[in-house]
Amino acid sequence: MSSAFTYTSEYVLDKAYFEECFTQSVDPKIPPKQYLKTAIFAIIGLGILLLDNVSQLAVSSKETYYLGYFFIGLAVVEWLSIRFKKTWWLWRQMMSKAAGDTVTLVIDDQGIHSQSTHVNQQILWTEVYRISQTDAGFLIALQKSTTYLSKRCLDAASIEFITSKQS
Questions:
Q1: By C-alpha distance, which of 163, 167, 161 is closest to 7?
Q2: What is residue 57's predicted lDDT score, i.e. its pLDDT?
Q3: Is 15 exposed, middle or buried (0-12, 13-18, 19+ CB in 10 A)?
């Protein structure tokens, strides 16, 4: 009878780790559908400005003029968040209170447990929908979310154990 598998490791949530997470889990291609909200904001803003210039109604005022430029500003911010998606995401992660924390990772027959000062996450093997192996880690798909696990904090036995859970 084989003994139960247990692996424990620690890693730091630093910029290199977050960058690896983003690179391995996000598709670098930007589908045109992502620009839909940008286009809608720009059209609304331009529509308000054009309506304000053409219309001689009492509705036309300084507030509607500012509202038009507000929507155009929203379109610019949305475009920048798409264009600089990686930088935007990395900045938000580095500004989070979890940045710089040391995470204790435990992999056993029950699942994967990550614990730090601000995070206590338990993923049971019974909840795992699919495990996809990337160049530098594993994408673990759950019912409503996906979690990334880097190989740099794993040894050969733990990688083999996780790979065996794919089937």
A1: 161
A2: 60
A3: middle
CA dihedral 24, 25, 28, 32 (to 10 degrees): 170
Helix (H) or strand (E) holding 5: none
Provide the pLDDT for residue 2. Answer: 58
Cα 54–Cα 56–Cα 57 angle in degrees, nearest 5: 120
Where are any strands of DSSP class E within 1-127? 6-12, 102-108, 111-115, 120-124
Distances, alpha carbon 2 to alpha carbons 43, 57, 61, 109, 127, in Å: 64, 82, 78, 12, 23
For 46-100, write each residue's pLDDT tens digit. 998 888 777 666 555 677 788 899 999 999 999 998 889 899 889 999 999 988 8
